[in-house]
Amino acid sequence: AQTVTQSQPEMSVQEAETVTLSCTYDTSENNYYLFWYKQPPSRQMILVIRQEAYKQQNATENRFSVNFQKAAKSFSLKISDSQLGDTAMYFCALTGANSKLTFGKGITLSVRP
Amino acid sequence: KAGVTQTPRYLIKTRGQQVTLSCSPISGHRSVSWYQQTPGQGLQFLFEYFSETQRNKGNFPGRFSGRQFSNSRSEMNVSTLELGDSALYLCASSVPSPHMNTEAFFGQGTRLTVV
After folding, report:
1. What is the pLDDT of residue A89?
2. Looking at per-residue confidence, does B86 or B28 come out higher?
3. What are the chain B neighbours of A96 within 8 Å (beta carbons)?
4. Is A99 close to B106, i.e. CB distance below 8 A?
């Protein structure tokens, strides 16, 4: 079975600062993908960033980057230069051969002006 | 390119009734998955359809069912509604690789309230 754990229920960050959201996972598969999704108050799930397990290089997308530690099964998201529009719930997710997404419980991020 | 469209956006039903939710995937996407989101249980996988066949199923009772049409549009049905079925139901579409879905695009969801 696959599991995803996000132990921090909520975080707050000052606008323009950097924040890191933590995620750990467990899977017995060798080939899998990890994702961070953002869910703003509109409830639309938006893909923030994706990491392929067999790639050692950490993925980056503009202000968003990940720290992927495969041996430790850790997948954290770093948001640089935080903006008010980053306020949302963030979910860490994992998919493997069965194609289903397994989500963590999510973390509520608030960006303070 | 149009995104994933879910209808209706909001629904209020009475216990014991049944409900059908619809999902139109992004053009060209043949895989459609459904998820239930509740404050207590978080996001849980219901099922996935690919080329009109159910490819994967989550741990939900048989009251939850779905289907996919030849144009890849999907419907999910919940019969004999219970109060605990109140949730946001999310649909996601993707272009699957031979072995897994590498990126899922979500609709805005259908908010179902059972009274």
Report:
1. 97
2. B86
3. 100
4. no
